[in-house]
Each structure stands twice: as C-alpha cells, then as structure tokens.
Design brief:
Organism: Guillardia theta (strain CCMP2712) (Cryptophyte)
Radius of gyration: 17 Å
Protein name: PNPLA domain-containing protein
Shape: globular
CATH architecture: 3-Layer(aba) Sandwich
Largest sheet: 8 strands, mixed
Number of helices: 9
Number of domains: 1
Structural class: alpha/beta
Pfam families: Patatin
GO cellular component, one term: lipid droplet
Number of strands: 8
Distance between the termini: 40 Å
Keywords: Hydrolase, Lipid degradation, Lipid metabolism
CATH class: Alpha Beta
CATH topology: Cytosolic phospholipase A2 catalytic domain
C-alpha cells in the first residue's frame, strides 16, 4: 500500500474538502485528490468531509493513503464483483479492503480532521446526515465508513447497518454532499442531475464536477451504472483522469480569478 507523507508544502491558507456520495465513482474523487496533492492544495491543516464513497476518500486523505491505493483497491474489488456479483456481496469485500487500508492509530489521524456523513434510522430517524467527527478506535472508523456507504439491500441483504447499538444507512441518501460550509465541494455527477440532493449550505462557486469539463463523455444513466456496478479497468482509469481534469480546470480558473 502506498501512503504519502501527509506533509504538503504550500501557503498558510487552510483548504477544506467535501466529497460527494459516489459508489464506484470514487475514482473521480481520487483523480481530483491526486491533483490537490501534487499542486500542494492539501495541507496539514486541511480537513475533509464525505458521504458514502466520499467518506472513503476523506479518511484516506487524512491518513496519508494515496490516490493510487484507492485506484488499485477499486480495481481489486471490481474484478471480484465482475466474477461473483455485486448486489448484496460488495459490502463484505469493501469491509475486507478497508481493514487492509486502515491501520491502528488511523482513527487518531481522522478524529477532529474528518467528518463522515451517516443517516441514522434507529432509534430516531434524521432527514439530514449525522456527521461523525471522532473515532474511538480503528474498528469504529471502519464501521462509520461502512455505515456511510450502506445502501439498503445493496451492500448486503440487510436493510440497515448496526453501529454503536443504533441503525444507519447511506449518508448520501438525502444529501449527496454533506452539509458542510466553506469547503471545496467535489461532486462526481453534474449538478443539474442531482440538484435536489445538494444542500443549500454547500458553496457552488467552489464546485468541482463534470460540469467543468467540456464535452464530458458520459450521460446520467451511464454514470449511475458506473456508481453501482464495476466498470472496465479502462473506464476506471478514465474516470480517474476526468477527476484530474476537473480539478486542474477548477484550480486554473481560480488562479485566473485572483489575478
């Protein structure tokens, strides 16, 4: 597994990152994160928030897990799902790979720096995500990520995910982006496709999404399919490259606006 040092050179400006629900499309997020790292935008003071696949990339960035590791893990899970099936089976695979990715002590790197969105359905339902910001051990960190990703009947045959005696489902089910202010928002879908799921707290002037890419090559039905079912290896790398392109374009435009 490749980890970056976490010590990124740059100015003092604090930049926070908010990643949308994505499923297998978290490779778009990994591409954007790759650019953030290479251009020194992610700093030791940066914080991260995310829902579903965005929760995975948020915890990965806080603990120094590289975008390359996210891609290789996605390819491994995709290969098994193509062979053995995805629905009700992918959850076990995901948990196994999260346990390989995250090590004891990573919960300390995430606590206070990462906010992960989950939707609590028991004992009392919440229409907006519950943001988990502290993790008492590695198992709790992994369980929170699993809860954030838990689409009922998709990750496993069960209707909910149990954590700390409560029941949860996917943190992106109502709000595809966590309701976090003052963040760079990374959305793997075009905004108009999911506008009803984007909370008002998100600053759309700081949005990195397929909208920014001229002649984006995929339509909504294809993107939904890519999110729920493993794409080919070529398409996985293509989505990573599109995430890179979107981040580069956004950063270039931000630089131009500051001149």
């Amino acid at each position: 597994m490749r980890r970056y040092s976490g010590k990124v050179e740059g100015g003092e400006e604090k930049t926070n990152f908010n990643f949308s629900g994505s499923g297998f499309l978290l490779t778009f997020h990994a591409g954007a994160a790759d650019v953030f790292l290479k251009r020194g935008i992610i700093k030791e003071s940066s914080t991260f928030s995310g829902a579903s696949g965005g929760a995975i990339i948020s915890a990965a960035l806080a603990t120094g897990i590289s975008p390359d590791t996210i891609i290789s893990t996605t390819l491994e899970i995709s290969a098994i799902c193509r062979q053995k099936g995805t629905v009700t089976k992918v959850g076990k695979l995901l948990e196994e790979h999260l346990r390989k990715m995250f090590k004891p002590g990573d919960e300390n790197l995430c606590s206070g720096r990462v906010a992960l969105a989950v939707s609590r359905v028991k004992p009392r339902p919440f229409l907006s995500p519950v943001m988990v910001r502290s993790f008492h051990d590695r198992d709790h960190l992994i369980s929170t990520i699993m809860a954030s990703c838990f689409i009922p009947g998709y990750l496993s045959p069960h209707a909910t995910f149990r954590m700390d005696k409560d029941r949860y489902i996917d943190g992106a089910l109502v709000n595809i982006l966590p309701p976090i202010r003052s963040s760079v928002n990374v959305l793997c879908f075009k905004k108009r496709w999911v506008s009803f799921m984007v909370p008002n707290t998100c600053d759309m002037t700081s949005l990195i999404s397929p909208d920014i890419i001229p002649n984006f090559p995929y339509k909504l039905p294809q993107m939904v399919k890519f999110a729920l079912f493993p794409a080919t290896d070529e398409e996985v790398f293509r989505m990573f490259q599109l995430g890179q392109q979107a981040a580069e374009l956004w950063l270039d435009r931000r630089s131009e606006s500051k001149k």
